[in-house]
Amino acid sequence: MRSKQASPNKTPEADTLLSIDEVAAHCRVSTETIGRMVRDGMFPPPERFGRRLRRWSVRKFNAWVDAGCPGLLNDEDTFQK
């Protein structure tokens, strides 16, 4: 059975969460690049559920995109950890 992927381009429910694979696919980068961007303050950090499970809120992801992807273009806009 295939799981249905959330799309940050559509209006999802408020608590829809994206995995790192889904975030990377939407950004068209590797999961390693997403991890590096989070570490370097260029991408919003994920919500943590336990020790290993990390997910991004679709609402926060869309807000980051709508804000012009702060942190990607210049060092002044780095995402606060």
Characteristics of this structure?
81 residues, alpha+beta, Multidrug-efflux Transporter Regulator, Chain: A, Domain 2, 3-stranded antiparallel sheet, 3 helices
Describe this structure in a few short sentences:
With 81 residues, the chain is α+β, with helices and mostly antiparallel strands.
Descriptive report:
With 81 residues, this protein is an alpha+beta fold. It has one domain: Multidrug-efflux Transporter Regulator, Chain: A, Domain 2 (Orthogonal Bundle). Helix content is 32%, strand content 12%. The protein has three helices and three strands. The chain has helices at 20-27, 31-39, 58-66, and strands at residues 17-18, 47-49, 53-57. The chain has a three-stranded antiparallel sheet with strand order 1-3-2. The longest helix has 9 residues, at 31-39. It is globular. The chain starts with 16 loop residues before the first strand and ends in a 15-residue tail after the last helix. The mean pLDDT is 80.
